[in-house]
């Protein structure tokens, strides 16, 4: 009997865990960053979203990372919108990956570079986006 109660509790928690977007109900108080001029995406990479706030960039050897945030609630919808802009811009989408509501990502290539874009929830109505690019 005890085993059945524990199993029922685990199944109930598991069933509920994937339904809510972790950022959808989290208040944005103190979470939204301000733009940093030195964090802008280079012209060769489309942001794929309207008015992203670019707040950080990092260099890892020949690979560069850019971090921003944008409006959006669903990581898959935002990822698909960005990947559509990349496809229309001549980039090849190599793969897409998603674990909603926690993250959604795609990998891209072009003639000289390869990279990825990852979207994760931030807070109510906002997502964090990480762009990565490096030589092929």
| Chain-averaged pLDDT | 87
Architecture, CATH level 2? 3-Layer(aba) Sandwich
SSE class: alpha+beta
Number of domains: 1
CATH top level assignment: Alpha Beta
- Count the DSSP helices: 2
Task: Give your account of this protein's structure.
The protein has a six-stranded antiparallel sheet, covered by helices on one side. It is of the alpha+beta class and 136 residues long. Strand 3 and strand 4 form a beta hairpin. It contains two helices and six strands; from the N terminus they run αββαββββ. The radius of gyration is 18 Å and the shape is globular. Residues 1-20 have low confidence and may be disordered. The protein has a single domain (22-135), classed as Protein Transport Mog1p, Chain A. The N and C termini lie far apart (58 Å).
Short description:
With 136 residues, the chain is α+β, with helices and mostly antiparallel strands. It is 22% helix and 39% strand.
Write the SSE topology.
Elements: H1 2-17, E1 53-60, E2 63-71, H2 75-88, E3 92-99, E4 103-109, E5 113-123, E6 126-135
Antiparallel strand pairs: 1-2, 2-6, 3-4, 4-5, 5-6
Features:
6-stranded antiparallel beta sheet, 2 helices, 136 residues, alpha+beta, 6 strands
């Amino acid at each position: 009997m005890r085993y059945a109660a524990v199993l029922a509790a685990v199944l109930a928690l598991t069933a509920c865990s994937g339904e809510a977007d972790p950022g959808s109900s989290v208040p944005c108080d103190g979470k939204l960053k301000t733009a940093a001029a030195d964090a802008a995406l280079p012209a060769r990479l489309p942001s794929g979203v309207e008015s992203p706030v670019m707040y950080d960039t990092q260099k890892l050897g020949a690979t560069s990372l850019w971090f921003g945030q944008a409006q959006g609630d669903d990581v898959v919808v935002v990822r698909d919108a960005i990947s559509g802009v990349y496809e229309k811009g001549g980039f090849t989408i190599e793969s897409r990956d998603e674990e909603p509501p926690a993250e959604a990502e795609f990998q891209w290539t072009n003639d000289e570079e390869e990279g990825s874009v990852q979207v994760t929830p931030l807070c109510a109505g906002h997502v964090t986006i990480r762009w990565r690019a490096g030589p092929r």
